[in-house]
Specification:
Blueprint (H helix, E strand, L loop, with lengths): L2 H29 L12 H7 L20 E7 L4 H4 L16 H9 L4 E7 L6 H10 L22 H7 L4 E6 L1 H5 L6 E5 L9 H13 L7 E6 L1 H9 L4 H23 L10 E6 L15 H4 E8 L2 H4 L8 H10 L1 E3 L3 H9 L13 H8 L15 H32 L6 H27 L5 H29 L5 H27 L10 H16 L3 H5 L1 H23 L3 H25 L13 H5 L3 H24 L8 H25 L8 H29 L8 H23 L4 H26 L4 H23 L23 H22 L1 H5 L2 H4 L3 H32 L6 H30 L5
Parallel strand pairs: 1-5, 1-6, 2-8, 3-4, 3-5
Antiparallel strand pairs: 2-7, 6-7
Pathway: Glycolipid biosynthesis; glycosylphosphatidylinositol-anchor biosynthesis
GO molecular function, one term: mannose-ethanolamine phosphotransferase activity
Pfam families: Phosphodiest (PF01663)
């Protein structure tokens, strides 16, 4: 077989990869577009010259609204769950992490006229970048911004930080350096700290504390922002139910006590903080595993604590509510994060961000003003009506300008964007606004005619006006949530069309390989029909959000079905029965592991009740399970090392091969030491911690890079034809798997060796069953049918391993801690590479690189290089086509469901994971084809 024949087998996979890149690029440009960011900014002069609200109830002493506070202290606690702040009485069961922030709870319960706790609800995606953009702009950041989470571009649209600076306010920031990426030139002073080392629980927090406390005594700022990260990092590494999480919450409680104490001490008449507002808030929540990014209640629900230090205003109210009523108020009051920017802007008296679609929150506005507010005020008597009426006039004016600003933005957005709101939506919005404005004019006349003396007339009129504006603003927000993203349907169609073209080319390439010096018949068999049906069934399941949530179980069910058919055939032919039984048992074991992963994924969500209670025995701290979790991975890794060593017997291994094998065995032994040190079963001194945390992982990485370098050298060496083509292929496959497997096992955690062993045994069983079937049937089924059945089963096994290793198709399904195994500092390229290897190691890297083991037959392929390379090329084409077909169904799914309620919480993450997986698959297939489809060593 000459070189031209080899490239005739290789070049189709390169063309297919290019077609997939084009398809993904086009579809992504159409589906994951950001909304149009308009280059317009609000100014003080806008309100006076354009707003219909001027000359209403009272004159505005501020820029747009009457300022109610002079200073604002904003303390952001990253990943602050609602149950971290709310009293444990709000929940059915008390957990160890509850009631730790006692200072906030006590103030909210004992001083409700000055302090309140709100449930703070975020819009997905719930990653820090999107939430900070949403908090400061008052808009709905779209899904594609997730890609910027590790390198955020500066915000170019209007936001309340920009408005603060433009209106002469001084802003000071400390903590998470994401703020500096979003606002690089806005802060009077800034003290940023690196935020991506999730193993570091203290650097950012200690930096915040060191600068926050002294600055509270200074008067050279108007808004102070401190962003703490310890809770977020503790969740990622240890989970919510852990000692480090409780310690962090206790630390924050002490910090907040000091902050509130200083503000109280300087809140007297003429004091520095006489009119200061404290806001303690979370940007998002987190699951029990410490993950976030999606739209579940645990991720979207965080907390907002607000406290005013204006003792004159707060003294006006004399709450007579019972403790029970206050508990209910704390547990049930909620605020949308969408409303944060406009509310803070209104309180400070600065222009509202041009692109904000939020509503000035009545409860927070009432708290600062020192009145009961709409929900707790009585309109049956006229007690304290002057204060309440004055507040309602001010708030109605705020909502008037709020509505005018939102209507102005919607008009400009629809005119400027390619796919703005529809004409029907705009008619509805215009009618709602016109009705509210007409009501405004009538309300002004009513109040002027009664000279503000009849509260029975003025208060209901003001309440009706406030309701009219609130209906308009809520309607716009809901409409934006449902239709915010601009989908370029033509680009999406072009991407989907390119994907179909790639499938046609894929099919023609497979046919071409079969026609290229054919060997054996290619008739359709029952096995090939089943394999084809399996791929279609799995692809069609992506059209349902419920099946996407259960994707791992669907793949495992299909794999188990194929194993049962093989078991039936083995019984019938009385051959390879043990292999069929072992393969089925391993499939059932993977199902069990997938169940555990799903139970962690849904630990506190609406799926929790679905999972049986017996899972807690395996996932908890039962001594038997703890013992097995330490020693089983070690035994499995020793067995893997033995199998690798045994694979070298009976062959003449060259020098480089010997080095690779020995370095791999050494790496496995280091992983054993790492596992022992991590479990601390030997009670070793603390000095060993550095070796476990840094030295051993970095040594394994270095050995892995060294082995890859040896493989590169070996690929370019020419020492004559010592081995035949099959032995050369066998040797290459062993060396490639040896080079990659230690790093993947290490990054996958303590159970990585178990999955490696399962992959090896499953592959061996599949290979022996395939050979036995071919021997019993001869070549009647043909090469294509044989490869299709076997590769489909191998692909299903790889999918099961993705979910069994604790992943799922969502950003909270990534194991972020793996990126920092061996390192404390964050370097984007290095940590991204480790994260990718851990995520795709068992589902893509090892299965694709190990595919030649599955299809090659040493008995029939020795001395027949052309048939051997044809099998490898055909197997890789089939594997690539299976991946492409499933991704095509994913594209169809998100196209159909692009307006679905769960598009950003479920369908978009599924799309991202699948297309990234397809890119990884194409890249590995291309590299493996070039590496394997050669001979002559």
């Amino acid at each position: 077989m000459d070189k031209s024949d080899k490239w005739r087998l290789i070049w189709p996979v390169m063309v297919i990869m290019v077609l997939h890149f084009v398809a993904i690029f086009l579809f992504t440009r159409g589906f994951l577009l950001t909304r149009t960011e308009l280059p317009f900014y609000s100014t003080c002069s806008d309100s006076a010259s354009q707003s219909p609200c001027e000359g209403g109830f009272n004159s505005t002493t501020g820029c747009w609204t009457k300022p109610l506070v002079q200073r604002v202290v904003i303390i952001v606690i990253d990943a602050l769950r609602f149950d971290f702040v709310a009293p444990s009485t709000c929940f059915q069961e008390k957990k160890p992490w509850m009631d730790r922030l006692k200072v906030l709870q006590d103030l909210a319960l004992t001083q409700p006229s000055r302090a309140r706790i709100f449930k703070f609800i975020a819009d997905p995606p719930t990653t820090t970048l999107q939430r900070l953009k949403g908090l400061t702009t008052g808009g709905l950041p779209t899904f594609i911004d997730v890609g910027h989470s590790f390198g955020a571009p500066a915000i170019v649209e209007d936001n309340f930080v920009h408005q603060l600076v433009q209106n002469g306010r001084k802003v000071v920031m400390m903590g998470d350096d994401t703020w500096m990426q979003l606002f690089p030139h806005h802060f009077e002073k800034s003290y940023p700290f690196p935020s991506f080392n999730v193993k570091d629980l203290h650097t950012v927090d200690n930096g915040c504390i060191d600068h926050l406390i002294p600055l509270l005594h200074h008067d050279d700022w108007d808004v102070l922002i401190a962003h703490f990260l310890g809770v977020d990092h503790a969740g990622h590494i240890y989970g919510v139910d852990s000692g480090p999480m409780v310690e962090k919450l206790d630390q924050y409680n002490g910090v907040l006590e000091r902050v509130i104490g200083i503000l109280e001490d300087h809140s007297g008449p003429g004091g520095l903080h006489e009119n200061t507002l404290l806001l303690v808030l979370g940007d998002h929540g987190q699951t029990l595993n410490g993950d976030h990014g999606g739209g579940t209640a645990e991720e979207a629900e965080t907390s907002l604590f607000a406290m005013t230090f204006d003792k004159v205003h707060s003294a006006r109210t004399d709450p007579s509510s019972s403790d029970l009523h206050l508990d209910k108020m704390v547990c049930q009051s909620s605020i949308q994060q969408l409303n944060f920017a406009v509310t803070v802007s209104a309180l400070l008296g600065i222009p509202f961000p041009f692109g904000s679609i939020g509503t000035a929150e009545p409860e927070l506005y009432a708290l600062v003003a020192g009145v009961e507010g709409l929900n707790r005020s009585s309109f049956k008597n006229c007690e304290n009506e002057s204060d309440l009426e004055e507040w309602m006039k001010n708030y109605a004016t705020v909502l008037c300008k709020n509505s005018w600003q939102v209507k102005k933005y919607v008009d400009v957005y629809s005119a400027a964007s390619v796919d703005g709101f529809s004409s029907e939506d705009m008619i509805h919005i215009t009618d709602e606004y016109a009705q509210a404005q007409q009501n405004w004019s009538q309300t002004v006349k009513i109040l002027q005619s009664h000279d503000n003396k009849n509260c029975h007339t003025s208060l209901p009129a003001l309440k009706g006006q406030i309701d009219a504006y609130s209906r308009f603003l809520d309607g716009v927000a809901e409409l934006a949530r449902s239709k915010w993203t601009e989908f370029n349907v033509k680009m999406m169609g072009a991407g989907l069309g390119a994907m179909f073209i790639s499938l046609v080319f894929h099919f023609l390439s497979i046919k071409r390989v079969m026609d290229f010096s054919p060997c054996g018949a290619s008739k359709i068999s029952l096995g090939s029909v089943f394999a084809f049906s399996t791929v279609l069934i799995r692809g069609c399941s992506f059209l349902s959000n419920s099946y996407i949530l259960e994707e791992g179980k669907v793949a495992n069910y299909l794999l188990a079905t194929s194993c049962i058919l093989q078991l039936r055939y083995s019984f019938k032919k009385n051959m390879m029965l043990s292999e069929a039984v072992i393969l089925l048992l391993l499939t059932l074991a993977l199902r069990f592991s997938i169940e555990i992963g799903l139970s962690k994924q849904a630990a506190t969500s609406l799926f929790m009740n679905y999972y049986p209670s017996w899972l807690s025995w395996f996932t908890g701290d039962h001594p038997f399970w703890t013992l097995l979790s330490v020693y089983m991975p070690i035994l499995a890794l020793l067995l893997v090392a033995y199998l690798i060593h045994k694979s070298s017997f009976g062959f003449t291994w060259w020098g480089i091969s010997n080095y690779v094998i020995k370095l791999t065995i050494l790496s496995y032994m280091l992983i054993v030491v790492h596992t022992i040190l991590e479990s601390n079963v030997l009670g070793l001194p603390p000095a060993s911690e550095y070796y476990r945390r840094v030295v051993i992982p970095q040594t394994i990485y270095a050995l892995g890079l060294g082995k890859l370098l040896l493989l590169a050298i070996d690929a370019f060496r020419r020492e004559g034809k010592v081995l035949d083509c099959y032995m050369s292929l066998y040797r290459k496959t062993v060396m490639v798997l040896c080079a990659w497997s230690p790093t993947i096992i290490l990054l996958s955690g303590s159970k990585g060796s178990l999955f490696a062993l399962a992959l090896i045994i499953s592959g061996k069983c599949m290979m022996r069953l395939k050979i036995a079937v071919e021997d019993s049937k001869g070549t009647s089924d043909g090469l294509l049918s044989s490869c299709l059945s076997q590769v489909t089963q191998w692909n299903l096994l790889a999918v099961c391993l993705f979910f069994a290793t604790g992943h799922w198709c969502a950003f909270d399904g990534l194991r972020y801690g793996a990126a920092f195994i061996g390192f404390d500092e964050f370097i984007f390229a290095r940590q991204a590479a480790l994260q990718a290897i851990e995520t795709f190691g068992f589902s893509h890297i090892l299965p694709i690189l190990g595919l030649p083991f599955l299809v090659a037959d040493g008995n029939s392929d020795q001395g027949r290089p052309f048939l051997l390379f044809k099998k490898i090329s055909l197997a890789y084409l089939i594997l690539g086509m299976i991946s492409a077909v499933t991704v095509t169904f994913t594209l169809m799914c998100v196209s159909i469901h692009r307006r679905h309620l769960m598009v950003w919480g479920l369908f978009a993450p599924k799309y991202v994971f699948d297309v990234v997986g397809l890119i990884v698959t194409d890249t590995l297939i291309c590299m493996a084809s070039i590496y394997y489809v050669t001979c002559g060593r």
